[in-house]
Design a protein that fits this description.
This protein has 538 residues and is an alpha/beta fold. It folds into 2 domains: 190 residues, no CATH class; 266 residues, Alkaline Phosphatase, subunit A. The protein is 53% helix and 11% strand. The strands form 3 sheets. Strands 3, 4, 5, 6, 7, 8, 9, 10 and 11 form a 9-stranded mixed sheet that branches. It is globular. The C terminus is likely disordered.
Length: 538
């Protein structure tokens, strides 16, 4: 009987641990009992004392541990990405998590961590199964008591659940986390199937979009366009009092310098399709003009013949390139999208050190981009992503002399700067401070690039890709800042007409545009119609 009680305590703890964490962090109601734990242990106690029953108990225990791990993963998704785990779509992220761990902690520590997780899961499975398997020497009276206890648990648990549905106070204490999770997963599978069909129809509607539009992007007059993303740069970086106190002065000072240098700056807001991570959804949404808020939509876009902004620029006679220092493996998506030149960490000539997850600092990436612009005389479109502001937001580097950047070896002294990531991951205050400093660094390098290298034939559009993890910033929405810089007014004016405000900060009350509106607006805003530039759509 003691083993049965211990089994109940263990299973109850496994299923309720995520709820206890949330209750502790957010000072919410603390649940006492999991209805499923009582049912699970009760049914296990009713199994006959046979070898086959032991095998079933071990299998059920393993399934229980997997379910508990899924509940914990769901908690991580809610706190880092602002959404629930979707097992039908999100398993591919295991590779991304592995690469993030290697970048932050190294291969050896990552493998040790994986081994620890596997051994821990195996130990929990074995302990649960052992507690649920009565001793072979148990007498008939003991077995009878165990069976009666099992009946009591199996019957009482559903009754508690029914009472909880009717009485709010009880509902907060007697919960069914596993049942809720399984139900949500089933609903997500159904919703994914429905959405796939709807998105397939959307993809089939005008795959070429602007193929018949004459003089596409002719108002650019062959001037170069750079579309850049700053990692994890959301509106929280400007609106949170503590973080904004670090970031906003950098933008305001930068604006003063840019204005003195003859560079115009306007700012606005976009709504990103993602929150906390998965930057490629934002990139794909901006390029395609389609709302890509999950992996199914992203993969369906890549598998389709739908054209993107890359095709629009190519049709206008532009050479297209991408500079993505975060890409460390093969990138077949770049072939599908159709860039003429692809620059990733594999072929960007960076001789400096990796900085934990960050493959190269933003100042080097901007310097490399300046070289591309210098070497290309014809029309050029470049899409790029800056990664110094990627979690865990360390180390934060100083701005070095641009003339000494070279191949990046000048960054060698900063190889092991700041705290190792594993020392700060759970210290939210340190993470918030590091986040603010890293975003400030990224914005300062952006501004210095524009001040030094932006000529009168280049348009620079810089957007945040998504908000940082909500558990660090407290971000609730998915809005990100957008900054547009150019020396020529005719490149800036369409953005002002679209609602952007002069200056370094998005103004309250101005329109916020979804990222999927950018492609069509941009093409029509810079394409003449009957000899006149089109009015940007509202």
């Amino acid at each position: 009987m003691v083993r049965l009680v211990c089994a109940w305590v263990l299973v109850n703890g496994l299923l309720l641990a995520p709820s206890w964490i949330v209750a502790a962090v957010y000072d919410g109601p603390f649940p006492w009992l999991s209805v499923e734990a009582a049912i699970f242990v009760g049914l296990a106690a009713l199994l006959p004392f046979r070898r086959g029953s032991r095998t079933l108990t071990w299998a059920a225990s393993a399934l229980l541990v997997v379910l508990a791990a899924a509940l914990f993963a769901n908690l991580v998704f809610e706190q880092s990405l602002g959404r629930s785990l979707d097992l039908s779509l999100d398993l591919y992220l295991l590779d991304a998590v592995y690469r993030l761990a290697v970048g932050n902690s190294g291969l050896a520590r990552t493998l040790v961590g994986i081994a620890g997780i596997v051994l821990g899961a195996a130990a929990l499975t074995a302990l649960t199964a052992w507690l649920l398997t009565p001793s072979a020497g148990a007498d008939g009276r003991s077995r009878s008591r165990i069976s009666r206890a099992g009946v009591a648990l199996a019957v009482a648990a559903p009754l508690l659940g029914l009472v909880g549905l009717a009485v709010p106070v009880v509902r907060e204490r007697f919960v069914a986390p596993a049942a809720g999770f399984v139900r949500d997963q089933a609903l997500q599978v159904r919703e994914t199937r429905r959405e796939r069909a709807a998105f397939a129809a959307e993809l089939a509607d005008g795959p070429t979009r602007f193929a018949d539009l004459p003089n596409v992007l002719a108002s650019l007059d062959g001037r170069r366009v750079v579309l850049a993303y700053i990692e994890s740069y959301g509106m929280a970086a400007l609106e949170d009092p503590e973080i904004g106190a670090v970031v906003r002065p950098v933008l305001q000072t930068a604006h003063e310098r840019l204005d003195s240098a003859g560079v115009q700056l306007v700012s606005g807001r976009f709504t990103s399709p993602t929150l906390g991570g998965q930057s490629w959804y934002a990139h794909g949404t901006m390029l395609s003009g389609l709302w890509l808020d999950n992996q199914a939509r992203y993969e369906m876009l890549l598998a389709s013949e739908r054209e993107t902004l890359i095709d629009d620029f190519r049709r206008a006679g532009y050479r297209t390139a991408t500079v993505m220092p975060a890409i460390t493996t093969g990138w077949p998506e770049a072939v599908r999208i159709g860039y003429d030149d692809v620059h990733t960490s594999r072929n960007i000539p960076y001789a400096g050190p990796p900085l934990y997850w960050v493959t190269m600092p933003d100042q080097f990436t901007w310097s490399f981009l300046a070289g591309l612009l210098r070497e290309t005389s014809g029309p050029l479109f470049v899409e790029t992503g800056m990664v110094s502001s990627h979690a865990p937001w360390i180390p934060v580097l100083p701005i070095l002399d641009w003339d000494e950047i070279g191949d990046g070896s000048v960054f060698e002294p900063y190889r092991l700067a700041d705290h190792p990531p594993e020392e700060i991951w759970w210290d939210v205050e340190v993470l918030r401070s590091s986040y603010a400093s890293s975003v400030a660094y990224s914005l300062e390098t952006m501004a210095q690039f524009a001040e030094r290298f932006l000529d009168d034939r280049t348009l620079l559009v810089v957007a945040g890709d998504h908000q940082a993890a909500p558990w660090v910033t407290g971000a609730e929405g998915a809005d990100v800042p957008v900054h547009v810089m150019a020396r020529s007014s005719d490149l800036i004016d369409p953005f002002v007409a679209w609602g952007f405000a002069p200056g370094p900060l998005p103004e309250p009350g101005r329109p916020t545009h979804r990222m999927d509106t950018f492609r069509e607006w941009f093409v029509r805003a810079f394409t003449p119609l009957g000899g006149e530039a089109t009015s940007p759509p509202s």
